[in-house]
Amino acid sequence: MLHIVCNNNKGISLVEVLIAMAVVVIGVLAVLGVFTQAYNASTKSDGLGRAAEILHRTLERNELRIMNPSCAIPSGGTETVYSSGQSSAKPGDIAYTVITQIQPRGTNAWLVTVTVRWAQNQTGIKESIIVTRQDAFKTVSSCV
Question: What is the pTM assigned to this prediction?
Fold first, then answer.
């Protein structure tokens, strides 16, 4: 019986080759689909991380200005910030719209609200802090 199985000289049929190729193609397409999803998730994460950095930097800059009694209270407004940190767009940059609102809250206190939006997320991210003037932070050189 073993001799009969080993002497099978029929080879592989065309149908078997086509089935094997179909299985391989389905496997490759499944792997490519996973890479596409991973790339999209990575792009979203990168955009959100950069937006969080811009939000934090803007909040901190306004907080330092308000805390220093030598500085004028900054006015809110809207500005465009690029992911490269440059003043103009570079190839591959993401443009972020930064909206800053500063509202007085009682005596010597202000509410600072910053919203950061970008093309892939029009809702954006938002954070608020309450800042008070601090005599210990009085310096003229930090009013930037």
Answer: 0.74
